[in-house]
Structure formats: structure tokens, C-alpha cells
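User: Please fill in residues for this 252-position structure.
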């Protein structure tokens, strides 16, 4: 009698298109069925993030290319957190990205994607050194957060940070503005972890009036942390061999 089909074999490829098969028997005869299959292999994306600062102008270019060759349904989202001492000028978005919120540099894409497609994003902004959080030389940081998923594969989350040494010549000012039209994109609200640089960003909403600066990062040797307004103090935990301070912020 004709037996049931066996389970499909593992896709015979390490990356890309291959074949899988199954068998069943009729008496002493073996019948084989074969079909094409595909295996995704990490990393699924190549990400290039280029930022340049020329005088008081900043130019940014983000490019994202797939490593997979099979046409696939993808979900992609990225967001830049621009410091409030920058004034946003313009940007260009391709590949049918949708801006999720008008006052944030946050974009998303959901749809079919092939190996010949790519994402290319640009924006420009101007830098105002009179709005720096501290006077003198400091490291300007612009974090980028990416979330990417292909079909039912595991979602990838990437955090990268552009760093540039800049100098402020005027008296430092609190990076909060009562003018709601002033650059609303900021480092963001809450806590953000940069796994590449082992930094933690802690920020409160720029819409809260405060006598304290609103954003800090964890590698400043505690110099700026002492100025932060907090309730319970520091809770430390161990992550990737690095102690990360977590601050519970007040909203004054």
C-alpha cells in the first residue's frame, strides 16, 4: 500500500535558494517529491550611516541594502534623535517611507522588497553653538535607532551613534525652548541603549520646563550626572560587562 509522505527535509543550502524533498514508499519503490526553498542568513541588511559637519551645517545620509535575494515582505523603521541646538532644514525620503509623526525624524516602511531595492535617506540641519548644553569643547552625539524584519525572521534592532567634537563659544543654555516651533526632534524621551559604544542616554521630555539640562549619557565620568534632577538615585545593573546607571527622572 502507498504510505504517507515523510516530512520535508532541511533546505539544502547555507544561504539563498536551494531544494528540499520528501519521500514515500509503494511496496519496495520509493517516490521523491522536490520543491524550491530559501534560507535567510544574518545579517539581513547592510547599513551605512554617514554624517558630516561643515561649519554650522550638518549633512546626513542613511543607506540600507538587503543581503537576501528573495523578494520578501519587510518591515523597517528608523529614527534619528537630533539635539535641540540644531535647526532642521530639509530631508528627502524614497522607497515609499511614511513619516510617523510630523515633529519627529521617524519613518517606517512596510511592503515587498527585492535584492535590487535599497533605502536612501538624507537630511540637513544647522548648528547653533549658543544653545549648547555646556561651554567649551564637548562631544556631539546623534543616535540612530533601526528596527528591521524580513518575513517571519527575527526582528533586528540596531542603535548607532554619530559622534563629533564641537566647541561652544557662548554661555551654555538649557536645551529646552518654550517655542513649540523650535526643533521638536530631540534625543528622545526615556532611556536608550547604544550597544556599539556601550552608552546609555537618559532624557526627559523637552516640553517640561526645567532648571536642569534634559539629556545625559553614561560615559561622561559623572561630571554631568550630578546636575540631573532625580528621585531615587542610581540603580546599577550589569550588561555586556558594563555597569549602566539607570535614573528615575522627576518631571519638573
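Assistant: Residues filled in for all 252 positions:
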Amino acid at each position: 500500500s502507498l504510505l504517507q509522505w515523510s516530512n520535508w527535509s532541511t533546505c539544502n543550502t547555507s544561504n539563498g535558494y536551494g531544494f528540499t524533498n520528501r519521500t514515500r514508499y509503494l511496496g519496495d519503490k520509493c517516490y521523491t517529491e522536490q520543491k524550491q526553498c530559501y534560507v535567510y542568513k544574518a545579517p539581513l541588511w547592510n547599513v551605512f550611516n554617514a554624517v558630516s559637519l561643515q561649519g554650522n551645517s550638518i549633512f546626513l545620509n542613511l543607506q540600507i541594502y538587503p543581503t537576501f535575494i528573495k523578494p520578501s515582505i519587510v518591515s523597517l523603521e528608523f529614527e534619528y534623535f537630533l539635539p535641540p541646538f540644531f535647526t532642521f532644514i530639509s530631508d528627502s525620503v524614497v522607497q515609499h517611507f511614511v513619516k510617523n509623526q510630523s515633529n519627529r525624524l521617524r519613518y517606517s516602511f512596510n511592503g515587498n522588497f527585492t535584492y535590487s531595492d535599497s533605502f536612501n535617506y538624507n537630511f540637513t540641519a544647522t548648528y547653533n553653538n549658543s544653545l549648547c548644553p555646556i561651554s567649551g569643547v564637548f562631544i556631539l552625539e546623534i543616535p540612530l535607532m533601526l528596527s528591521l524584519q524580513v518575513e517571519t525572521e527575527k526582528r533586528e534592532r540596531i542603535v548607532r551613534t554619530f559622534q563629533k567634537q564641537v566647541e561652544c563659544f557662548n554661555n551654555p543654555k538649557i536645551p529646552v525652548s518654550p517655542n513649540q516651533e523650535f526643533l521638536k526632534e530631540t534625543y528622545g524621551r526615556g532611556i536608550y541603549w547604544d550597544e556599539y559604544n556601550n552608552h546609555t542616554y537618559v532624557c526627559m521630555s523637552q516640553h517640561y520646563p526645567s532648571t536642569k539640562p534634559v539629556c545625559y549619557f553614561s560615559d561622561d565620568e559623572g561630571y554631568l550626572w550630578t546636575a540631573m534632577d532625580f528621585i531615587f538615585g542610581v540603580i546599577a545593573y550589569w550588561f555586556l560587562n558594563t555597569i549602566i546607571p539607570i535614573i528615575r527622572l522627576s518631571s519638573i
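For context: The longest strand covers residues 136-150.
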